[in-house]
Amino acid sequence: MSTRLSDYDYDLPRELIAQRPPERREGARMMVLRRAEQTIEHYQFCQLKTFTQPSDLLVLNNTRVLPARRFSDDGTIEFLFVERLGPKRWKCLIKPGRKMRVGATAKIDNVTLRIDEVTPDGERVLILDEELDVYAQGLMPLPPYIKRLSDDEDAARYQTVFANAGGAIAAPTAGLHFTREILSETPHTFVTLHVGPGTFLPVRSENIAEHLMHAERFSISPEAANKINSAHRIIAVGTTTVRTLESARRVDGKVQAQEAASNLFIYPPYRFRAVDVLLTNFHLPRSTLLMLVSAFAGREFLLGAYEEAIRERYRFYSYGDCMLIL
Length: 326
Fold this sequence. Notes:
Blueprint: E1 29-34, E2 39-44, E3 56-61, E4 63-65, E5 69-71, E6 78-86, E7 89-95, E8 105-108, E9 111-118, E10 124-128, H1 152-157, E11 165-168, H2 180-183, E12 188-193, E13 216-220, H3 222-230, E14 233-237, H4 239-248, E15 258-262, E16 277-281, H5 288-297, H6 299-311, E17 322-325
């Protein structure tokens, strides 16, 4: 198993990056990877039930994406409000960062924001001169590979149908494919992990083992833990669900109800103890998400599947197609 960053790379034609969601949530294609047989098959997501058993349990992340993207009143500065640190104090990502060094100011809704601190990862800590509802006129924080501003369609589609725990700045994208009807076909439960910027921080070290994940808050209710621990097979929907379950597992493999934070970085040769099957979208090269899925499927097998997905013109990333890894 490789820990070299360059071994988690691939070339993707730009036109395969999905810029819009499919016409219907369930309309995505689904590549099925069988790890034991090392085979690849092609289906539609609406055929998911074909691969489930009555004793399976789908586990999904019910975090809700906040409309956290704002622009300064003069339109020159973009803010992504990541976390409220206290009264009139926020952590943000800002573009362009070079304009917003310590002491710099800008206005949103005529409220002055001053840069108080720049973190080692480039985040800004802001002090506001009065309280501001940052979400009131906010846009959905679409990822940067979607080359447009969010619109009314994104307000609905960059959100799962089961989202109810506000706190994320990015969607748990594997869950975007589900309709309420498809979800009702298989026993399921929910956990919560609020997706933050740490999930998407680039890995800068050639030795990926040196990369440090930012902690993200998660919670598992006693009811969810009981269902998870009683299930024959756990189907994790998305990498954030995997990180939640693996962070909460005990030595005996059982998942413990809790509210905590996780900085778990999963990469080969990680040994999974809480997850049996993974449903996930396609991920960026050199990303921690690709490394997690490589640990689950096997790096060479997974990258071979990505090559086939490119040949077959699958749609990639947040609004793209998905894969089911058995």
